[in-house]
């Protein structure tokens, strides 16, 4: 077993949106960091835009044996599968994100006060507010670059221009005006111009689910990890799977990992930061139980793994005649670049919890395999032969516009992570057992949002619109499982994301969130990661 | 059984388990199981794929080079997950066809082959073995991936499959 004997100031586990910003900020302040990542370090050469090897994610997910999980969707029989992984590679999910970067609004920090308590929901107000996070949102924006941001200055002092928008955006603007909605340009962590040695967007259309080859997308690999490595204070350790934290008393002494070639090893540090995604962070803490901490580390409240949330999916696709707008292939930009935040609050009598979400318009993913695969399903039935070919031809005789809504997934007692008693991964480590039951109010919100969008598509002149009512998430955005708060009895972390129980343990992935969000959470996770860094080096 | 023998067996089993955990043994077994496809299996795979994605005014799986795709891909870890399904279906089809035609499935008359696959696909042959329909669906996935992936992988010859999508295809779709 390798033990370098070296004592690091900080050991960070996970190099995605939660781990990379804190690594860069601490390294800039002179701390010696070990940054461990379970997945590999991919170069651009590894990440050609091949739909077979990249988009269906085998490069980014552990295989069935390494990423084995026991997943219970509602009352269905358990699946033993590698579902619900965000990308495992240096940079994490940010390497393949779409990069929709919205800020939280003031009311988003107080969901319980603003929208009230309801049966079977465990959402809580955040112990911080917008003023606490605002400076860090600004920092992230100016560090990584968001299109059209006034905070992103080019060398000549001017701001970066926004990304080009597809002509359908004008159609959306007109229809929204008729319905009293106020579309906004989608803020994206994608560069429209060359900046900080990163190239501009090539508008290839292969953005979400793909790694960016020009460096325009602000993945952690292109931004904070490069910054961190430039300081000389960070040791980046890809292919290091941390499976246990060794604690003595109320402090962690070292982490145990399997390194390249499955060689076991350990690393010592003064401070430990977990940022391995909400599911894996909870699993690591629960698997690190000792006689002193029989229910897992940092778990005196019994809340580690509880209150898992995602983003409640609500996907609507509109079918349009080809002459209404050009196909994304034929236009100068495949980005729609329009969003709606008017539906943040839903004044519908049918809802007890009136929180809605953010709508982002986009074109369906251009990957031909993915699109044909989708057409080979009719509900739960498969289609093949002549029927499949006819369906493909009919589907592609129209243009399609999609909307993805990011809706609050209410935390509830039926949605949680614990340790599987039956499933172990390739290394023999107990796997995560995940239970997912969306709250009825979240499902209702998703349907109401979908109705609004169908109306919008009708005004735009759609031939038809299709709402995918599947309430189960693909799992890219995970939150909860280690919620923060002031009371150690009702939270796992304090307001600076330090464990109430273990004094040298911080969590900086989205596990800290005590409620779901009506926006994609990546930007907030990064801003909070910088806030925690500020606290650690004493300037927060 | 003597106590000493029993303890000996117990210690041996524990030692074996520590050295070779179940997951590693299973993984090794799976690798052995997924040896490359034989010519006969490749031929059957192409016939099934043509049934799933047949030729009409647009090319079918065979014309798109599904056999080359399967041959090229059969050694990759990504494709290996399809192989057990393909083997089970091939063995079953051959066994059933020998009962009637005294020949392998691939030697059957095309209409008889299609009728046979109709039975499997529609769930009327579920009695043949448990999971035959799921195996067929795995082959639907394999066919779609083979036909619509980048020509670099052997299928989608001259990118002709992509032309059905909207009459054009974009250069950026190409891997090389």
Structural class of chain A: alpha+beta
> Order of SSEs of chain B, N→C?
HHHHHHHHH
Mean pLDDT of chain B: 83
Cα-to-Cα separation, first versus last residue of chain A: 38 Å
Number of helices of chain A: 11
Kindly provide the radius of gyration of chain A, computed on alpha-carbon positions and rounded to a whole number of angstroms: 23 Å
Query: What integer value in Å does the Rg of chain B equal?
Result: 21 Å
Biggest β-sheet of chain B: count, sense, barrel? none
User: What percentage of amino acids of chain A are in beta strands?
Assistant: 15-25%
Shape of chain A: globular
Fraction of residues in helix of chain B: 55-70%
Quantity of strands of chain B, as a count: 0
In short:
The complex is a heterodimer of chains A (about 550) and B (about 180). Chain A has helices at about 20-30, 50-55, 110-115, 130-145, 170-180, 225-230, 280-285, 370-375, 385-395, 440-460, 520-535; strands at about 1-15, 35, 70-75, 80, 185, 235, 240-250, 250-260, 265-275, 310, 315-320, 340, 355-360, 375-380, 380, 400-410, 415-425, 430-435, 465-470, 505.
List the defining traits of the structure above:
heterodimer; A: 540 residues; alpha+beta; seven-stranded mixed β-sheet; seven-stranded antiparallel β-sheet; 20 strands; 21% strand; globular; B: 176 residues; mainly alpha; 0% strand; extended
Structural summary, described in words:
The complex is a heterodimer of chains A (540) and B (176). Chain A is an alpha+beta fold and 540 residues long. Chain A has 11 helices and 20 strands. In chain A, strands 1, 2, 6, 7, 8, 9 and 20 form a 7-stranded mixed sheet that branches. In chain A, strands 5, 10, 11, 12, 13, 16 and 19 form a 7-stranded antiparallel sheet that branches. The longest helix of chain A is centred in the last third of the chain and has 21 residues. The C terminus of chain B is likely disordered. At the A-B interface, helix 2, helix 8 and helix 9 of A face helix 2, helix 8 and helix 9 of B.
